Amino acid sequence: MENSYRALRLWSMVLRIIGILSVLSVVLGVIIAMFQAPSFADALTILFIVGPLGALLATWPIALGQGLEAIADVAEYAQAQQPRR
């Protein structure tokens, strides 16, 4: 019985797309927030603290998607190594 783990690969792709959209929205949000900051110090705080933390949190779906892809690859490899009966 051949199983291609399509469900894992589908969710991997969905998570990667969500992650990319999240990163793009964080970048756009940081740029908008910097221009709206009341002072230069607030703009630097947004740029150097809020931006990297937001980007870190926004990349979690990408990392989870890569993990699911790796699980599917390992499962297919292990299935291919099984002797046929």
Task: Provide structural commentary.
The structure is a single chain. This protein is mainly α and 85 residues long. The mean pLDDT is 92. It contains three helices and no strands. The chain has one domain.
Write the layout of secondary structure elements.
Layout: H1 6-36, H2 40-58, H3 60-81
Helix pairs in contact: 1-2, 1-3
In short:
The chain has helices at 6-36, 40-58, 60-81.
Based on Cα principal axes, name the global outline. rod-shaped
Low-confidence stretches are none
Pattern of helices and strands: HHH
Count of individual beta strands: 0
Keywords:
single chain, 85 residues, mainly alpha, rod-shaped
